[in-house]
Amino acid sequence: MRYTEAEWLGLYVNAIANAPLFVGVALVFSFALSVNGETTNAILFLGSNIVLMLIVGALKITTHVGRPQNRLIDAPLQAFPSGHAAASMFLTFTIPYFTFPKSISIALTLLVIGIIATFLVAMSRLVLNVHTRLQVMAGLLLGVLVPAIMVLYHDELTQMLHFSQKAFLGY
After folding, report:
1. How does 95-113 read in b/e, with b if 16+ C-beta sit within 10 Å?
2. What's the predicted TM-score (pTM) here?
3. Cβ(67)–Cβ(130) under 8 Å?
4. Angle (nearest 5°) at CA 117 between 33 and 76
């Protein structure tokens, strides 16, 4: 089969931006937060990541929306919403959020890199015909909503974590 340049780029991005990469980035970033004494933020980051993946999984299971017929790669699972788009958007906003207090320039650089990467991931899903526009947009929206809720309730979640840590560990 002969691919266009856009399809080759889509295949390349798809090969790189996969579930193990997203999980690996999340684990490494959580570890970095924890090592820097930000255990609470590490737990909030990982917890909101898990919540996002559970929501995406639940929607895929309950909606039973299939993939487009003429896709260029094999993707056997349900398609709504795009988990790739959701995970990419999640990382785009949460990593700079937790980096911002330390260095605004690093946070802004990470945000720009994340936006470019998310655009490439979203476009690869469309070019490869693995998702429809609606499925990608829903994934992007979820990838923004879960971190937004975490940011809005950051103080309350932090207090709950400190309370449960004291109750569990006894100090």
Report:
1. bbbbbeeeeeeebeebbee
2. 0.80
3. yes
4. 100
In the block, tokens 């940011």 appear at 151
Element (H, E) at 106: helix 104-127
What are 58-99's pLDDT values in tens digits?
898 888 877 777 766 667 677 788 888 999 999 999 988 888
Give me 47's structure tokens: 């917890």
Number of helices followed by number of strands (H, E) in the chain: 7, 0
Distance between CA atoms of residues 20 and 25, nearest Å:
8
Tell me, rounded to whole angstroms, the distance of Cα 135 from its chain centroid.
15
